[in-house]
Amino acid sequence: MSEADTRHQSRRAVRQRNRVQRVRRRRKIQALAAGGLVLGVGASATVAAWTDEEFASGTFQAGQFNIEANVDGTWQGSNTMQFDASNMFPGATAYAPVVVSTTPDTTVAGVVTVAASGGEGALAQHLQYRAVATELPSRGTSFTCDASNFTDGADYVFGSGSGYVDLASAPTSEAAHPVAAGGNDAVAYCFEVQLAQDAPNDAQGTSADHTWTFNARSQTEGSG
Q: Which of 101, 109, 136, 172 suits a disulfide with 115, CB 3.0-4.6 Å?
């Protein structure tokens, strides 16, 4: 091979080697560029993550629940029923009404039950009583408490049409009567107290005291 051919082949080999190197560099640059694009896409996704917040607030206020009683034509938060029971004799009876309602500013309905404390005094063991309840459509409805209330079909809170409870005992009635909010209705109780027919002579001149407590519990719709 001539010297010219040798030089020609050498130059061609150099060009071929340079071409291969250029191709390799170009591939590396493309690979790096592709990696850069991937990183760029990831960064763009992070920036585009929109956020938002909403808030809710509330104001809370408790309602009111109170009852009051009417025994003498006036409504009071604390009241005492009065029996005209002086100078009682064996078999004598005395009557007293109690009308219970929620106060006008009461915001929830409720139920009323009655509990007896048990009579005190020498005469208590000779007294007996019973009571019935009547639901009234309004606080202003008139109510009469006398013997006519105690029929066989009456709503007995204590005792029955033919039976009495000893004044010396302390029962709690299971009867619960509803009262509406705002004093829109009422429940009227009529109590009948009787001195036993067989009260002995030594009961003369003695006396007895007794307390009935009207318990009210607020009640929302559907509660028991």
A: 172
Rounded Cα distance between 71 and 62, Å, is 30
State the pTM of this model.
0.72
- Total domains in the fold of the chain: 2
Cα distance between residue 190 and residue 135, in whole Å: 11
Kindly state whether residues 206 and 110 are assigned to the same domain.
yes
**One domain for residues 97 and 180:** yes
CATH code of the domain containing 92? 2.60.40
Contact 140, 95 (CB under 8 A): no
Look at residue 90 and tell me if it is in a domain: yes
Please give the residue that has the higher pLDDT: either 72 or 127.
127
**Among the ranges 11-25, 35-49, 72-86, 99-113, which has the highest mean pLDDT value?**
99-113
- Same domain, residue pair 84 and 162: yes
Q: Which domain holds residue 112?
A: 67-218
- β-pairing, 177-179 vs 110-116, is antiparallel
* Residue 135 near residue 219, CB atoms below 8 Å: no
Spatial separation of the C-alpha atoms in residues 107 and 218, rounded to whole Å: 10
